Amino acid sequence: MYIFKPLPSWLIHYLNSSDEKPTKVFFRASTDGGDNIIPTETLSNNPSDSFEPKINVSGNSVHVIWTELQALLTGHDIFFRRSTDDGDSFGPIINLSDNSGNSTVPEMSTSGTDVYVVWQDTDPGNNEIFFRRSTVNGDNFDATQNISDSAGISHTPQLASTIG
């Protein structure tokens, strides 16, 4: 999967190859429309598979989320990393879901310095949609909220935001 933003251009690459295990999330960027691309940076660092990456750019900040299979097959979690210098370097990995359920299908949106993340989660015993927000450009996040809170099955979250 490649996602570009025109000048400067941003690129995220998810490698899923049977020859490469575990699968990881990689980032590459270009500031000249793709003529020159900086070296690949591995964003995920897990002995198990990482998948479902998403990227969002706001100003010179690059936000990336993905799903990881946790050690010993105990479930999936949603992870986040950000860059505040146009993708030149990335901060620490943050586990946004950090629970015993299966957290999958992440989506992300940004508005200014606000970062919004939703995902599907089985932690309550059935599929629910969880939400976390950062008002400080992903430096830290508010507590997790169950925004569907339903006895039924909630799935396939979508997210959009706007300034103002």
Q: Could you characterize the architecture of this molecule?
A:
This protein has 164 residues and is mostly beta strands. It has a domain at 46-146. Helices cover 0% and strands 46% of the residues. It contains no helices and 11 strands. The protein has strands spanning 9-17, 20-30, 41-42, 50-58, 61-69, 76-83, 94-95, 103-111, 114-121, 128-134, 145-146. The strands form 3 sheets. The protein has a 4-stranded antiparallel beta sheet, with no helix packed on it. Strands 8-9-10-11 form a 4-stranded antiparallel beta sheet, with no helix packed on it. It is globular and about 50 Å long. The model is unreliable at 1-7 and 14-18 (pLDDT under 50).
> Strand share of the residues?
over 45%
> What is the succession of H and E elements?
EEEEEEEEEEE
Overall, the morphology is: globular
> Whole-number radius of gyration?
16 Å
Strand order, sheet with most strands: 4-5-6-7
How many beta strands in the DSSP annotation?
Answer: 11
- Global mean pLDDT: 85
Oligomer: single chain
- Main beta sheet strand tally, sense and closure: 4 strands, antiparallel
Structural class: mainly beta
> Which range best describes the helical content: under 10%, 10-25%, 25-40%, 40-55%, 55-70% or over 70%?
under 10%
Residue windows where pLDDT falls under 50 for at least 5 positions: 1-7, 14-18
**CA(first)-CA(last) distance:** 31 Å
Count of DSSP-assigned helices: 0
